Amino acid sequence: MNSQIHIRKLPGTLVVRAGGAVLGESDAALELTEGTLPPVIYFPRDDLAMAFLDGSDRRSSCPRKGEAEYFTIALNSGELADAGWSYPAPLAEATRIAGHVAFDTVRVTVERV
Description:
The chain has 113 residues and is mostly beta strands. The protein contains no helices and ten strands. The chain has strands spanning 5-9, 14-18, 21-26, 30-34, 40-44, 53-62, 66-75, 78-86, 100-103, 109-112. The strands form two sheets. The protein has a seven-stranded antiparallel sheet with strand order 1-4-5-9-8-7-6, with no helix packed on it. Strands 3-2-10 form a three-stranded antiparallel sheet, with no helix packed on it. A hairpin with a 2-residue loop joins strand 7 and strand 8. It is globular and about 40 Å long.
């Protein structure tokens, strides 16, 4: 598998929603592709309602991106455990995603508006 990372700014405005709540809207979202894996969209933290995101104890490590920290999304209808993640100090190939958060698109909706 070719695991080279490519990052590009997405055109237009994207919104992220969970449980009916808008978590954020951005015209500065980034799309990260890595080898044959599906693309992942990263939202700048400044464009998110970070009050919905509670830090989790979960951590994971990627040899190309570095160590990820996770977030549980707190909603009136309940919690979505570890549904968001971020690389606070990404490795050289992924530095553009520093200060950004990605979401599990099985439980969270990301769409262009």
